[in-house]
C-alpha cells in the first residue's frame, strides 16, 4: 500500500485484482454491493468465477475499511492492494466516462477481455510468467538481461502489453534493451499481435509490463502457451504503478502512466513530456479533453490550440489504413479560405456559420435496417419525421431484409379453424399488401409461398424475437452485396430486429474489413441474439435509443435493450431513454441528442 500522509477525509483510488477460484460469485457480488455502498465507494468492480478486478474511489478511511474487509476473506490472501491519494473527482466528462460517478458491479466471464472472438478460449492462468518486483525488474533492465540463466543467455525483449493511447504518453526505455510496442487499439487485439509476431519472441527472454499487472497475467500465459522457445517470460508485479512508487524519479520509465480513472495519468518527478499533439506535433500528453478518433473512437492527443480550430480527428492507426476526414472550407468575414493543420493528416476545421445552423458540405450516409415483419417502404414512412429533421446532415438509405415472410391474418372468430368469409373469398393477398421481410427467422417457420395467407398461431407474443435465431449468414451475405452495390455508408441504423442484426455486424467488424465498414451504429429498441460477447467488448461508436420503464414498449423491454447496450465499450456509447414505447422519438430533446451524436462524424 502506498504511504498516504493525508488525513482520512482526503480522497483516494484503490486498484487491485486477484485470480483465484470463486466458489460463489453471487455471494461475492452481494458482499461488494453491501460493502461499497455502505462506504460510499464509486467505480468498477468486475467479478468472474476466476477472480476479481477492482478500481474504486472514495475517502481514504473508507477505502482502508474496504481493504480490511477484503483481507479478512481467505479469497484475497496475497492480494496487492494499490492505494493512492488524489483529488476528488468532479461530476465532469472524465469522471463519468471513467465510471467514477457511480458504482458498477458486474459478473463477467473474463476479468479482462483477452481476444476479440467470443468463442476463443483464454489461456490457463496457472501458466503465467514469473513475477518480478519493481527492484528485480529495474535490475534486469539495468543489466540488459544478464540476470537470466548465466549458462543459457538469451536476448532480452521488453514487451508493452498496453494500448497505443497509453504508450503514447509513457513507456519504459533503455538503449540496451529492445522494446516492442504492439500499437493496439484494445487489449483484445493483443493475442493476434502475438500470433503474428511470435518469431520476435521465440527464443528470447520476454519482459512484460502493464499499468497494474492484470493484463500481463493473461498475456504472459498466452505467450508461454506457445510451447518450446517461449518459456522465459517475466512480468512486472504490481505494474507501472508499483514501479513508480519505488522509483519516484521515473527510473527507466519515461513520461506518464495512463490510468483508467479520473486521474487520467500519473507522472514521476521527471517532468519531460513524451507525447505529442496528433495535429501540430507539439509536446503534449493530456487526455483530459477525451478527444477521440472519428472512426474507431480511440483516444487521441489534441492540444488546446488545435481543438479550438479542429473538431474531427483520425488516429495513427486509422490513418495508416487509409481513413481520412475530408478537409472542410470555413467562411470568416465573408471570405472563403482553407485551413490546414498538418501535411500528413487530413482534418475538419471549425464549423462555419452555415454549418452551425445545420448545413454541411457533406451528408452522412446511413443504412437503415427495419424490424421484423416490416419492409423498406414502411420503415421509410415511419422515419419520415426523423429523415426530415436530419436532412441537412444525413441521408437515410432503406433496404428490405433478405428473408421474405408469409402474410398473416387473425381470424375474427375465436375458433382458429373457422376462416372469415373475406378470407375464404380470397386466399391471395390483395395487391395493396406489401411484402414483409426479416433479418432473422424462427427455425420452425413454415409456409407454402407468397401466394398464401398464414393463419396466426395465436395472439401477439411479445417474446417472439427470442425464437428468431436463424438466417444470420444469409443476411450477412446480403449486406455485403448491398455495400458493394450501394456503399459506402458512414453508419448503420437498426430498429428492433434490425438493431439486433446491426449489433451482430458490429461484433464482426474486424473480420468484415473491406466488405462492410462503417464508423458508427444507431440501435433503436434493440436486443442481442446469439452474440456471446463480453460486456464492453464491442469497440464501435454506438447510440442506443430505447423506451424506459415508463415507455411501455410491448415488444422489447428496456432491460433487454440495456443488455445490448452493455456489450459496447463504455467510453464509445451514448444512450437515449424515452417514454414513448416501440418508436424512435423525434421531438426535443431526443432529436437534439441524436444530432449531437451524428455531428461527431461530419
> For the record, what is the CATH homologous superfamily label of the largest domain?
Alpha/Beta hydrolase fold, catalytic domain
By CATH reckoning, the class of the largest domain would read Alpha Beta
Mass-distribution shape:
globular
User: How much of the sequence is in beta strands?
Assistant: 15-25%
SS content category: alpha/beta
Amino-to-carboxy terminus distance: 47 Å
- What is the number of beta strands? 28
CATH architecture of the largest domain: 3-Layer(aba) Sandwich
Tell me the number of helical segments per DSSP (H or I, 4 or more residues long): 19
CATH fold-level label of the largest domain: Rossmann fold
Mean pLDDT: 81
Rg is 27 Å
Low-confidence stretches: 1-6, 326-360, 413-429
Number of domains: 4
How do the strands line up in the largest sheet? 20-19-25-26-27-28
Domain Rhodanese: 152-252
Protein name: Rhodanese domain-containing protein
Pfam family, one: UPF0176_N
What attributes characterize this protein structure?
602 residues; alpha/beta; Alpha-Beta Plaits; Oxidized Rhodanese, domain 1; 4 domains; six-stranded parallel β-sheet; 28 strands; 25% helix; disordered N terminus
Amino acid at each position: 500500500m502506498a504511504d498516504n500522509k493525508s488525513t482520512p477525509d482526503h480522497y483516494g483510488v484503490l486498484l487491485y485484482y486477484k485470480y483465484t477460484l470463486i466458489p460463489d460469485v453471487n455471494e461475492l457480488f452481494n458482499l461488494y454491493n453491501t460493502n461499497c455502498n455502505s462506504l460510499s465507494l464509486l467505480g468498477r468492480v468486475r467479478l468472474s468465477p476466476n477472480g476479481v478486478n477492482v478500481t474504486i474511489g472514495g475517502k481514504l478511511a473508507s477505502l482502508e475499511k474496504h481493504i480490511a474487509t477484503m483481507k479478512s476473506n481467505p479469497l484475497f490472501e496475497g492480494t496487492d492492494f494499490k492505494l493512492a491519494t488524489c483529488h476528488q473527482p468532479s461530476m465532469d466528462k472524465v469522471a463519468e466516462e471513467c465510471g467514477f460517478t457511480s458504482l458498477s458491479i458486474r459478473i463477467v466471464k473474463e476479468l479482462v477481455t483477452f481476444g476479440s472472438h467470443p468463442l476463443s478460449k483464454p489461456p490457463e492462468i496457472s501458466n503465467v510468467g514469473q513475477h518480478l518486483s519493481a527492484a528485480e525488474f529495474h535490475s534486469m533492465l539495468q543489466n540488459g538481461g544478464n540476470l537470466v540463466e548465466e549458462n543459457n543467455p538469451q536476448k532480452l525483449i521488453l514487451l508493452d502489453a498496453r494500448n497505443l493511447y497509453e504508450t503514447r504518453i509513457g513507456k519504459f526505455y533503455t538503449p540496451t534493451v529492445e522494446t516492442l510496442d504492439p500499437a493496439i487499439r484494445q487489449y483484445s487485439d493483443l493475442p493476434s499481435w502475438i500470433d503474428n509476431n511470435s518469431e520476435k519472441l521465440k527464443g528470447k527472454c520476454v519482459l512484460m509490463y502493464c499499468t497494474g499487472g492484470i493484463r500481463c497475467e493473461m498475456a504472459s500465459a498466452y505467450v508461454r502457451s506457445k510451447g518450446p522457445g517461449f518459456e522465459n517470460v517475466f512480468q512486472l508485479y504490481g505494474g507501472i504503478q508499483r514501479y513508480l512508487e519505488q522509483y519516484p524519479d521515473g527510473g527507466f520509465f519515461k513520461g506518464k502512466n495512463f490510468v483508467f480513472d479520473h486521474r487520467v495519468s500519473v507522472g514521476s518527478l521527471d517532468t519531460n513530456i513524451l507525447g505529442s499533439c496528433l495535429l501540430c506535433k507539439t509536446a503534449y500528453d493530456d487526455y483530459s479533453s477525451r478527444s477521440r478518433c472519428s472512426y474507431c473512437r480511440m483516444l487521441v492527443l489534441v492540444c488546446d490550440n488545435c481543438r479550438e480550430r479542429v473538431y474531427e480527428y483520425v488516429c495513427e492507426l486509422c490513418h495508416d489504413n487509409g481513413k481520412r476526414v475530408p478537409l472542410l472550407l470555413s467562411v470568416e468575414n465573408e471570405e472563403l479560405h482553407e485551413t490546414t493543420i498538418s501535411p500528413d493528416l487530413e482534418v475538419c476545421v471549425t464549423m462555419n456559420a452555415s454549418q452551425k445552423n445545420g448545413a454541411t458540405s457533406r451528408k452522412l450516409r446511413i443504412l437503415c435496417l427495419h424490424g421484423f415483419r416490416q419492409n423498406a417502404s414502411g420503415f421509410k414512412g415511419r422515419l419520415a419525421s426523423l429523415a426530415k429533421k436530419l436532412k441537412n446532415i444525413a441521408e437515410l438509405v432503406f433496404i428490405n431484409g433478405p428473408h421474405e415472410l408469409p402474410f398473416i391474418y387473425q381470424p375474427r372468430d375465436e375458433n382458429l379453424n373457422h376462416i372469415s368469409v373475406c378470407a375464404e373469398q380470397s386466399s391471395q393477398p390483395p395487391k395493396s399488401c406489401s411484402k414483409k421481410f426479416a433479418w432473422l427467422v424462427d427455425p420452425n417457420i413454415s409456409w407454402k409461398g407468397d401466394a398464401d395467407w398464414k393463419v396466426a398461431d395465436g395472439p401477439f407474443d411479445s417474446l417472439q424475437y427470442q425464437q428468431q435465431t436463424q438466417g444470420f449468414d444469409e443476411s450477412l451475405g446480403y449486406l455485403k452485396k448491398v455495400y458493394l452495390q450501394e456503399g459506402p455508408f458512414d453508419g448503420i441504423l437498426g430498429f428492433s430486429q434490425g438493431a439486433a442484426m446491426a449489433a451482430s455486424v458490429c461484433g464482426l467488424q474486424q473480420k468484415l474489413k473491406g466488405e462492410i465498414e462503417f464508423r458508427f451504429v444507431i440501435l433503436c429498441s434493440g436486443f442481442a441474439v446469439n452474440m456471446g460477447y463480453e460486456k464492453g467488448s464491442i469497440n464501435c461508436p454506438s447510440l442506443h435509443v430505447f423506451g424506459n420503464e415508463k415507455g411501455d414498449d410491448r415488444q422489447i423491454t428496456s432491460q433487454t435493450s440495456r443488455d445490448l447496450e452493455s456489450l459496447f465499450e463504455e467510453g464509445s456509447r451514448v444512450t437515449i431513454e424515452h417514454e414513448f414505447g416501440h418508436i424512435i422519438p423525434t421531438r426535443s430533446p431526443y432529436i437534439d441528442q441524436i444530432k449531437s451524436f451524428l455531428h461527431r462524424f461530419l
